[in-house]
Amino acid sequence: MTFARYNFVVQDDEGNVIDGAAIAVKKAIPGKPLVALKANSAGSAGLNNPFIAASGAAAGFYVESGRYEITASWMSSTGLVTRTVPDVDIGNQGYAYTIVISPDQFYEPDDDGDWTPAFGRMASYINTNMLGGVTIQNTPGMVYDIWPEADGSPASQLMLLDSIHSLTWYWNGSRLETDNTFAANGQVVFALTHCSNINIYDAEYVESAWDGLHLSLGGAFWVIQEAASPWSNNINFYNLKQNGGIAGLFVGQSSATSGGYAHNINIFNATFDNV
Fold this sequence. Notes:
Shape: globular
Number of strands: 21
Distance between the termini: 50 Å
Helix content: under 10%
Radius of gyration: 20 Å
Number of domains: 2
Number of helices: 1
Largest sheet: 11 strands, mixed
Order of helices and strands: EEEEEEEEEHEEEEEEEEEEEE
């Protein structure tokens, strides 16, 4: 048997990496029993459960494919801190491992409060390195400011994900926000092409300068568009939320090419204002 690898980053609510956290992994079933963890893909070396993640930036373990609850605990200046991620699917998409990343990992000091470059870097990383499943964990309650008005109308989409086939994104009460007035053009926020098995939880986008802009101006939150197969399939949005912009979700073809469209695209609960 080959065991699946799960990599992740341990962070506090401010996005700081936490070294030395205790990691407990439980089966996502009634009773939530601890499971046997391994230190290599062959399973020949065991790993304590819970175990201590000496490096919070490179925490990880091997385990049989399945669904798990993962809890990280550490001591802070105010006492014990515990963070739990429920129902994590590991190894069931046919991949040998799952990586866990955060937009905060891609932010650089020179970005000066503008998260636009960080999301672009994250997209490049995923598109280049995605050999397994990927989970994105936004910092809880974070406001990611993008497309500042001072830079003019955005010239390109915030993120393009191409040919990604297993991605889960938890927004954790965070949101994207822009003060751009889109004076020259509208723009796509997130674009997906040739993707499958994508699950987006609690995504939120806000245009703080929205004041009745023309429908051709503003941001289109999610766009799934391609000119040829393989068509995107099984894309799911849970609790999608948007205030301002030209569209919450657009699905279509990027040319007159016939023969198919993206399919099995689902929204489970949404709140749209001024869209």
